[in-house]
Specification:
The complex is a heterodimer of chains A (280) and B (161). Chain A has 280 residues and is an alpha+beta fold. Chain A has 11 helices and 14 strands. Helix content of chain B is 33%, strand content 16%. The chains are: A alpha+beta (280), B alpha+beta (161). The interface between A and B is medium-sized, with 25 and 30 residues.
């Protein structure tokens, strides 16, 4: 990458980069195709950790035992764009792209996630919170690439949900909500993470909304208070997907529903959830 | 982009080894249509939306407008031209014809391959599973009802074989 200069880019699944190149929003002078690097697409589970190789495709994650045990990962993987894009797009590419509307960043921020970056100076592990700096901007140096994503498995009494609302299957969501809740007993919220997607320059951790629930009973009243806090935490911009106010209302509603589903899953219930769009 | 060094790509397309020297930026769909004259794979939107360019790469559907040809190097490609055998329609093609699962036909090659991919993984899909499987294929004529009928029929017919 050093030889090829600053304008060279790494090509993983290509499902974001190639459309960006067609629109001339990205104009790399050289591409380094890593699809033929062996061992980069493994999905492994050991010592309470899941390890996703950068080239693990969304479809492979959807079908994996790893995702079967952690519903929020399955919600995310099974609904990104459409079948064709999921067959080719990668988790490493999604995280490295840092698109404000990307599904993986919002989902993975509800879990303890770190990104293993590899470069000529060796490897370093960066917490996902620190990895993403801004829209389309990460801490990756020009000569570094994402090698692996490591996710700590949540405890037994924990459940999560990722809900994304989109206008049709292939497009980015209008808004999305990722929630992972750990219960104390049947309905007391021991800990919770709430992350909002598509309503800011990066995925947003809604800490005030979390505080409305932490240590409290999860019921309609506390969920509503959290949803109200989400309206203030969101920083949406109006665009062709909807006005800023519409997105605020939408993301608050998604969070409220996601908390309910996450709590039911934490109790061991099987609940279907994920991306929603017309015609589904 | 004149002066860009061409690179060799080689892949098996519908069972035959094909190779060419292409500019690295050549899209797979351009390689299929322009280098190999396999024009059954269509370019609808060129924005990763419509799915008219869907082909199988190593048994999985991908949008061939969103893949550079060199990324498929060494791979196994199936296009709509590879479905019929000795002039006999594939059961999926037959079902689309029987059920009027097409009108103008532009989206059909992509839908046939998405259907084949679905039925290979899931021989008896529910309507919900069918809808999810073809969510990346846009049809502006049919309203999808006859496409659903066709996929159900293809599932039944392939189940009998």
């Amino acid at each position: 990458m050093r030889q090829l200069g600053d304008e060279s880019r790494v090509l993983a699944g290509g499902q974001s980069l190639i459309p960006l190149m067609k629109m001339r929003l990205a104009r790399p002078t050289a591409l380094i195709d890593i699809n033929f690097v062996p061992g980069l697409n493994d999905i492994q589970s050991h010592n309470g950790e899941l390890r996703f190789g950068a080239l693990a495709r969304h479809t492979d994650i959807e079908m994996s035992d790893a995702a079967a045990g952690i519903p929020i990962l399955h919600d995310c993987a099974a609904g990104i764009a459409d079948v064709q894009v999921r067959n080719q797009g990668t988790i490493g590419g999604s995280v490295a792209e840092a698109d404000p509307s990307g599904d993986w960043s919002a989902t993975l921020l509800t879990l303890e996630t770190s990104v293993v970056c590899a470069g000529p100076r060796g490897e370093r592990s960066v917490k996902l919170e620190e990895f993403i700096k801004d829209a389309y901007t990460t801490v990756l140096a020009h000569d570094e690439l994402v090698r692996e994503i490591i996710v700590k498995k949540p405890p037994k009494n924990s459940g999560g949900a990722y809900l994304a609302f989109k206008r049709s299957a292939p497009v980015y969501a209008t808004a999305s909500a990722a929630v992972q809740v750990t219960l104390d007993g049947k309905d007391i919220c021991k800990d919770i993470r709430i992350v909002l997607g598509c309503v800011g320059l990066t995925a947003i951790r809604a800490k005030q909304a979390e505080a409305e629930l932490r240590g409290k009973k999860i019921d309609d009243k506390t969920m509503q208070r959290a949803a109200d806090a989400v309206r203030s935490a969101a920083e949406p911009q109006g665009d062709m997907r909807g006005s800023a106010d519409y997105k605020r209302t939408l993301v608050a509603a998604l969070v409220k529903r996601a908390i309910g589903i996450a709590a039911r899953r934490a109790r061991g219930e099987r609940v279907e959830a994920g991306h929603e769009y017309v015609g589904r | 982009m004149s002066g860009v060094e061409k690179i060799a790509v080689r892949m098996r397309v519908n069972g035959e080894t094909r190779e060419a020297l292409v500019e690295p930026r050549t899209l797979l769909v351009e390689f299929l249509r322009e280098n190999l004259n396999l024009t059954g794979t269509h370019i609808g939107c060129d924005t990763t939306y419509c799915g008219a360019c869907t082909v199988l790469l190593n048994g999985r559907t991908i949008k061939s407008c969103t893949l550079f040809a060199p990324m498929a190097d060494g791979g196994e490609i199936t296009t709509v031209e590879g479905l019929a055998t000795n002039g006999a329609l594939h059961p999926v093609q037959h079902a689309f014809a029987e059920c009027h699962g097409l009108q103008c036909g532009f989206c059909t090659p992509g839908l046939l391959l998405s259907t084949l991919h679905l039925l290979t993984k899931n021989a008896k899909p529910t309507d919900k599973e069918i809808r999810k499987a073809i969510a990346g294929n846009t049809c502006r004529c049919t309203g999808y009802q006859n496409i659903l009928k066709a996929i159900r029929m293809a599932s039944d017919e392939m189940g009998k074989r």
